[in-house]
C-alpha cells in the first residue's frame, strides 16, 4: 500500500462486518483498505467465535452420538474416548483454512489489507500502528468502524484464560475439566457448556436472571432448559457470582441470590465467564474526533450507518442491534451500498438467532411473550418433531416448530424452532417474513418428503387451520 494513495474507504476491523463491507465496497468500484490488528482476518467470529465453537460442538456431538446412540442403531464400538488435542487441532484447521480464504478473497477483489491497529486521526485519516513495526497514515474519503466487541468482565472474577476463562480460553482447554461453572446462561455459555459437558464435565450454569437466553420464546425456553438438564447440565438461576478465589488448583466462587441474601461457595476446575459482550473501541480515537457512543460504548449511527461525524460510519457488534455475525455482514453490505447511492437496508426484526446446542434452537421475529406484552392479537401453530417422519426415521424427535401470526391477517410475526437442524430450518420462516408471507403461504408450499422441513409446513398449517399428522 502506498501511504499517499487516498482510499475511497478505509475499514477498521476485518471481522464479518468489516471484511464483507470491504469486499462489497471493492465490488462497487471503491478503492478500499481494510485494517486489522489481530494478525488474521475473520474477526471474533472466525478466529475465536462462531467457527471454532461450531467445530467443537460438532466434534463433541459426534462423541456423544458414538457414546450414547450408536448402539441403538446396531453400531458396536469399543469404549469411546476423547483425544482433546486432536479435537482442538481439527478446530484450528477449520479456522486457519477459512482466514486464509478471506485473504484470497481480498486479493481477488483488490482490497488492500493493512496489518496493524488503526486509529482515527481525523475524519479523513486513519493511522495504523503496523504489526511489522512503524506507523503509516492512510488518507480516506470515508471511514467505516467495524471493530466488534469484547467480553464484558465481571467484578471479582478476573479472567486468566487458564482457570477462569473467557469464551476464547474455553476453546483452548487442554483436558476435560471435572467440574465447570459457566457464568451467564446466554447462547455462548450454553454452547461452550454443552461442548465440555458432552465430553464429560459436570457443568453448572449460574445465571443472574430468572431465565436462560432471555430473548427466547418462553415455551421453547422451558423445553430447551429441560433438554439441557436431561443431558446433565445444572442451572442456578437468579444467582450472582460476587467473588472468586484460587485454591489447590481449583476456583472457589462465592455466589448469592441476585437480589441479595446468604452466600454459598461453588468449586470448579474451570470457570467460564460469558455474561455478555460490549463494543470494542479502545484506542480508536473516538473521543478525540468526537464520535458519539452511549454510556455502554455502543456507537450511535443514523439510518445510513453514519455516526454524528460526517464521513465516519460504523457497523456490526459496536453499534446497536443483535451482536451476531450475519447481522454485522448485512450492516456492512447495506452501509457500503448507501455510500454508493444505493438503497441498503437491514431489517433487524428478521435477523435470526440460533443456539447451536443439540437440539438446536432457532428464532426469528416476535415471541409469544412480546406479542402479549404489546397487546397484539395473534394465533399460534405448533408441530412436534415426534410426529415428523424424518425425525422419527433418524431418531431425533425432540422439540417443535412454533409459529405466531397476526390474528386478523395471518401474516407471520415470529417463528421458533427447537429441534434437529433448527438453525437451517428457520430460514424459510425468515424468507417468508421478509416477503410478508402468511402461515398459509408456507403451508401451501410443497415441501419434500421425508424432511424435517415438513414440520415447518405442518406448524404453519396448524396456525391457520389444522395439521395433518398430529
Ligand atoms: P468482530 O468479529 O469482533 O471483528 C472486529 C475485528 O476488528 C477484530 O478482528 C479486531 O481484532 C479488529 N479490531 C478492533 N479494533 C481494531 C483497530 N483499532 N484496528 C484494527 N483492527 C481492529 N455470531 C453468530 O452469528 N453465530 C454464532 O454462532 C456465533 N458464535 C459465537 C461464539 C462465540 C464464542 C463468540 C465470542 C461470538 C459468537 N458470535 C456468533 C458473535 C460474532 O462473533 C460477532 O457478532 C461477530 O464477530 C461481530 O462481527 P464484527 O465484524 O462486528 O466484529
Describe the protein.
With 470 residues, this protein is of the alpha/beta class. 32% of the residues lie in helices and 26% in strands. The protein has 14 helices and 21 strands. The strands form five sheets. The chain has a five-stranded mixed beta barrel. α1 packs parallel to α4, α3 runs antiparallel to α4 (84-109) and α3 runs parallel beside α6. The chain is globular. The termini are far apart. The protein binds flavin-adenine dinucleotide. Flavin-adenine dinucleotide binds at residues 12-18, 35-38, 43-45, 49-50, 53, 117-118, 146-149, 167, 188, 280, 283-284, 316-317, 323-326, 328, 356.
Give a brief rundown of this model.
By secondary structure, this protein is an alpha/beta fold. Helices cover 32% and strands 26% of the residues.
Which percent range fits the helix content? 25-40%
- Enumerate the distinct ligands: flavin-adenine dinucleotide
Net shape: globular
Separation of the first and last Cα atoms? 63 Å
Largest beta-sheet characterization: 5 strands, mixed, barrel
Q: What amount of the residues lies in strands?
A: 25-35%
The strand order across the widest sheet is 1-2-3-4-5
Mean pLDDT, to the nearest integer, reads: 97
List segments where confidence is low: pLDDT < 50 over at least 5 consecutive residues: none
Total helix count? 14
What Rg is obtained from the alpha carbons, in whole angstroms? Answer: 24 Å
Give a count of the beta strands, DSSP E runs of length 2 or more: 21
- The computed structural class is alpha/beta
InterPro entries: Class-I_Pyr_Nuc-Dis_Oxidored, FAD/NAD-bd_sf, FAD/NAD-binding_dom, FAD/NAD-linked_Rdtase_dimer_sf, Lipoamide_DH, Pyr_nuc-diS_OxRdtase, Pyr_nucl-diS_OxRdtase_dimer, Pyr_OxRdtase_I_AS
Organism: Ostreobium quekettii
Cofactor: FAD
Protein name: Dihydrolipoyl dehydrogenase
